[in-house]
Specification:
about 180 residues, single chain, alpha+beta, about 15% helix, 14-stranded antiparallel beta barrel
Length: about 180
């Protein structure tokens, strides 16, 4: 889980003898929007997202103009996104991560596997298939509008932590 991040920190600490590694990024693209979020040191950051994953199992920050205040405990993510409640149960069944409950007060049920990401986050439904080891492509339907040009790239450093991955995907896919 944290091994990848510790290795990256070790490499950065080696000094000028090593070139700095490229930052991992979570990339989400639709026909109307493109969001790239830097993933580093238990932080997600971009112009729209500033989140910190704390050692006390909390997630704090801002995302798309809304405050984020979440607690991760016993495979459950609870708290608020904006002023609306979050209560997601996260289970890992045979290589598939399942998130079910509410996110930002909206019904959410989605699955992430090495082959696909499917389900509903708020007003949007997704059907994304793997096209290479870290990239999913497909379509979504939001408010009755079909978008066939959706892509999502998940860096391995984020994919290694179930709750961080579900939190990040819930925020991005709800947009």
């Amino acid at each position: 889980m944290k091994t990848t991040r510790l290795l990256a920190l070790g490499l950065l600490a080696c000094g000028p003898a090593l070139a700095a590694p490229a930052a991992d990024s979570l990339n989400f693209r639709t026909k109307d929007r493109s969001v790239t979020v830097r993933v580093a040191d238990d932080q997600l950051s971009s112009a729209d997202v500033q989140l910190s994953f704390k050692e006390d199992d909390t997630v704090r920050g801002q995302a798309f103009g809304r405050p984020v205040n979440l607690t991760v405990k016993d495979d459950t993510i609870r708290g608020s996104y904006g002023q609306r409640p979050v209560n997601l149960n996260v289970t890992d069944k045979e290589d598939t991560l399942d998130a079910t409950g509410t996110f930002g007060g909206q019904v959410t049920s989605f699955q992430v596997s090495p082959q696909q990401i499917t389900g509903t986050v708020g007003a949007c439904s997704y059907e994304l298939l793997i096209t290479r080891h870290d990239r999913y492509e497909g379509y979504r339907t939001c408010g009755g509008k079909l978008d066939k040009s959706v892509s999502l790239t998940i860096p391995s450093s984020l994919a290694d932590d179930d709750e961080e991955l579900v939190t990040a995907l819930s925020i991005l896919l709800a947009q």
